[in-house]
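Issue: copy button drops trailing tokens. Both records pasted manually instead:
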Amino acid sequence: MTALHPQQALFEEGDAATALPVVDHYCGVEARMRKSLELQGQMGPVFDVTLDCEDGAPIGGEAEHALLVAEMLTSPLNQHGRVGARVHPPGHSSFEADVDTLIAKAGDRLAYLMVPKPRSAAEVARACDFIDASCARRGKPRPPVHTLIETHGALAEVQAIAAHPRIESLSFGLMDFVSAHRGAIPRSGLTVQGQFSHPLVVRAKLEIAAAAHAHGKTPSHCVVTEFKHAAALQEAATKAAREFGYTRMWSIHPNQIQPIIDAFAPSVAEIDEAVEILHAAQAAQWAPIQHRDTLHDRASYRFFWQLLQRAHATAQPLPAEARQAWFATP
């Protein structure tokens, strides 16, 4: 009997969440966009690059900036097809122009579109409808849609937003979320320590992660602005991954990329255990097994398979047999 691949044995079609790179790197200035794309070309698609039409565009120069982003998307620098773009918020006068420009000029190369600052699930739905209509008018493929949860309205309806079939990932927007509290959350809530301890911020992070996982979407953790403090970044990324349930995190400086990858990657011991258990499970045709005095079945097999997927996505060394059997390109 042919051994089933873990993906076939453990998930019904459409059940498994899309596995995105664990880093979402943001840049909006031309020189930094070029540098980030060059770095992605060197490191490979272990991180995404999001070209920023919102904060990256000078006031009055939004249209020109969108054209520049489209040029970057279609340039030879986009080697791996893992480059997206953040557009202006749905309520902004440049939202529709951003979408139309990017779809028309670079619709075949967009890995995703990030929609910031939605105020409700209905606004997310309208934004998705406009994106889809723009694609239909031009005969372009529909890119996955990512969205930021950073307003009171979006957080209140985060389950409905996560349930929308066009949404692939939810990101937490820390700075706008804190600002929306009109000073009720102190400045310390923006720091590495405060954003993991202030009750209102912790509640928001947990609700976003829970909603994303409930609907098979990717929760993406907010930035750490103290980009020169490597130890603080490592601590924050580790907490986001190990305690708050996030499987992706924003980067705003190239020096943040590798520490985030390292924090989200499984340890060597975790990888070795997962390989042993999955090999034994596959040999048993995915029936229950006993491994080191512990019983395992398909529920735990799914956990260990997802751990190995994360190891592969973060370019961790895998045993040759496991790499060939489960991750070799057909």
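Record 2 (pasted manually too):
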Amino acid sequence: MAPLIVFPAIDLKGGQVVRLAEGDMDRATVYGDDPAAQAEAFRQAGAEWLHVVDLDGAFAGESVNGAAVAAILKRFGGKIQLGGGIRHRVAVERWLALGVERIVIGTAALENPDLVRDSARDNPGRIVVAVDARDGMVATNGWADVSNVSVIDLARRFEDAGVAALLFTDVGRDGLLKGCNVEATVALARAVSIPVIASGGVTDIADIHALRGHVEDGVEGVITGRALYDGRLDLSWAIEVAKG
């Protein structure tokens, strides 16, 4: 059985490392002002992947924390998955050229699906579609808006596009340490042929164990942030469990 990938998360707001509660920019907890140093610490703990989000960019629709991302790229040394405000082909190609391994496209996947299809066609295995959900419906624009499209309907639109993975976030659990929505994550993974990455609500090692048991269902990885920063989850241990 393939290992579950653990993606420690660095969310950027105003150049700082933060975590939001339910995607609310007014409910941000600052965990540090040196994102590159945080990336290096995750690498030393054994992380091979890093999930980076430009939160300001997600609301602005363009890169805002580019300098911090560039610093992380220099220091981390592993593979970086980047999202937040990447809504144009120029931005996709720019970040890939700078060394980002995977680009996460969220709002634009719903509003401009051709961006996903064209980018995935020309960069196979390097485009991830973010499927963010509130009560099963897709949330967009930094989770500020909720569409009338279901999570599974959106995911199925990209079945044949060659995307690397779907990043599924239960917005109602994100940053709240309520536990990962394993049931909904697995249901999505079983409904489509695209690998699924779980995100939102990871609390402790029990979530890693639970998701590890569904790798064969199509669950590829898990993103964790607040649990690491609050000391509820040890990254090295999580990676060992994820490897089985």
